[in-house]
Design brief:
CATH architecture of the largest domain: 3-Layer(bba) Sandwich
EC number: 1.8.1.4
Number of strands: 22
Protein name: Dihydrolipoyl dehydrogenase
Shape: globular
Disulfide bonds: 49-54
Strand content: 25-35%
Binding site for FAD: 58, 122, 153-155, 322, 328-331
Domain FAD/NAD(P)-binding: 5-337
CATH topology of the largest domain: FAD/NAD(P)-binding domain
Structural class: alpha/beta
Oligomer: single chain
């Protein structure tokens, strides 16, 4: 007889493993199915984020930043470095160690919370008495039954038409994280989060990097003023970004990759590189899920159709994270996972899409929450804006990193904060104050009146709030 569970989660990425843990905390007999594995076949839960996304990319970003600081910036601090060299294999090995620590941490959390873990691919079999039968295909084949099923199967990298990933010359985020040696010339298609982060890693390590972007504007989803500031910094670093291009034929061979394209002026161009990273977005992953077996509805993109509470068209079947609508962000998936587990328990799960922070971990970092200035203008919302540059911040000067600014947008009448946008040092950490403020519907005056530690980067947030009322103190 199939093992019976109250909740079965298909997928062990940030959304899936968090959903499973929260369900177990709420007293449900819970199982989580995940097929990621290490090269020696051992379980590697954590999904794209842990294995070939957020975690390993941050490890390489940190390593490459250390390398660049040692080569270009330590001398400013009176630290002389001689004979600087790169051990790429050791750098990649450290990245792999960081990933494994996270994999092992998730397995420990499953054990701690009494979540039954099944290593393999989960597929729907049929609706059955007591819920749904799920086939686990892996080293040990078995069928389990779940009263509630949470689909958290994530997403896959989108390939260029006619140029499939071989992970040797034409790379997805997976291959981009394990290039064995620094390429002399590196090309990227797409200047989104993955493109900019991977481009930054390999540029810092010595590669000549060119990014081709189809859109005419740089970081169109980012506040325009912030995007322009970031672009200036990337240009200064030598990260070449061509906008408004149309990519044509891509040829891959022993000598590398050739990309034919037309530039913004309509002129035919060719880019010859050793490696090409393609980062043109991601697509929902339902490979092997067999949704038709139970009548689970997908949309034209292949995403599982859900309502505002992550309910699918089937009773007691839910879906979260990258495989559904909304931003493809690990922390969004986590929040949905917690919310669904709590809804199953009869509680009121909470996810506010308007206060989900976005971060690009380049240098300078870019982070934002809420609406951009161009969005407010388009919607006809009356607003006030306040900015404060890190150039005028004491802690930033001491760090030696004064690029960028904090920008705050507040409603002209009520002063409620509508958006906060940061480009500069530690923006990924600074944005949390703005998220908290917006979640509690704070005004810019509230932030302006809160005491911030001195000297700290967070003082720039306070000063941007003061600037909304045109009363900055340090500018």
């Amino acid at each position: 007889m199939a093992k019976q569970f109250d909740v079965v989660v298909i997928g062990g990425g940030p959304g899936g493993y968090i959903a499973a843990i929260r369900a177990a905390q709420l007293g449900f007999n819970t199982a989580c199915i995940d097929e990621w594995k290490t090269r020696d076949g051992k379980p590697a839960p954590g999904g794209t984020c842990t294995n070939v996304g957020c975690i390993p990319s941050k490890a390489l970003l940190q390593s490459s930043e250390h390398f660049e600081h040692a080569g270009k910036h330590f001398a400013d601090h009176g630290i002389e470095v001689g004979g600087l060299k790169l051990d790429a294999a050791k750098m990649l090995a450290r990245k792999d160690t960081v990933v494994k620590q996270n994999n092992d941490g998730i397995l420990y959390l499953f054990k701690k919370n009494k979540v039954s873990f099944f290593h393999g691919r989960g597929s729907f079999v049929r609706a059955a008495e007591g819920g749904y039968e799920i086939q686990v295909t892996g080293a040990n084949e078995e069928v389990i039954t779940g009263k509630h099923v949470i689909v958290a199967t994530g997403s896959n990298a989108r390939a260029l038409p006619g140029a499939p990933f071989d992970e040797e010359n034409i790379l997805s985020n997976d291959g981009a994280l394990r290039i064995p040696q620094v390429p002399k010339k590196l090309g990227l298609i797409g200047s989104g989060v993955i493109g900019l982060e991977m481009g930054s890693v390999w540029r810092r390590l010595g590669a000549d990097v060119t990014i081709l972007e189809g859109l005419p504007t740089f970081l169109g989803a980012v506040d325009e003023q912030i995007a322009k500031e970031a672009k200036k910094a990337f240009d200064k670093q030598g990260l070449k970004v061509e906008l408004g291009v149309k990519v044509g034929e891509v040829k891959s061979g022993k000598g590398g990759v050739s990309v034919a394209y037309t530039n913004a002026k309509g002129e035919a161009q060719k880019l010859e590189v050793d490696k090409l990273i393609v980062s043109i977005g991601r697509v929902p992953n339902t490979i092997g899920l067999k949704p038709d077996a139970v009548g689970l509805k997908l949309d034209e993109r292949g995403a599982v159709i859900v309502d505002d509470e992550c309910k699918t068209n089937l009773p007691n079947v839910w879906a979260i994270g990258d495989v559904v609508r909304g931003p493809m962000l690990a922390h969004k998936a986590e929040e949905e996972g917690v919310a669904v587990a709590e809804r199953i328990a009869g509680q009121h799960g909470h996810v506010n899409f308007n206060t989900i922070p976005w971060v690009i971990y380049t240098s300078p970092e870019i982070a934002w929450v809420g609406q951009t200035e161009q969005q407010l203008k388009a919607a006809g919302v009356k607003y006030k804006a306040g900015t404060f540059p890190f150039m005028a911040n004491g802690r930033a000067r001491a760090l030696g990193d004064t690029t960028g600014m904090v920008k705050m947008l507040a409603h002209a009448d009520t002063d409620e904060i509508l958006g906060v946008h940061i480009v500069g040092p530690m923006a990924s950490e600074l944005i949390s104050e703005a998220v908290v403020a917006m979640e509690f519907k704070a005004s810019s005056e509230d932030i302006a009146r809160i005491c911030h530690a001195h000297p700290s980067l967070s003082e720039a947030t306070k000063e941007a709030a003061l600037a909304v009322d045109k009363r900055t103190l340090n500018l």
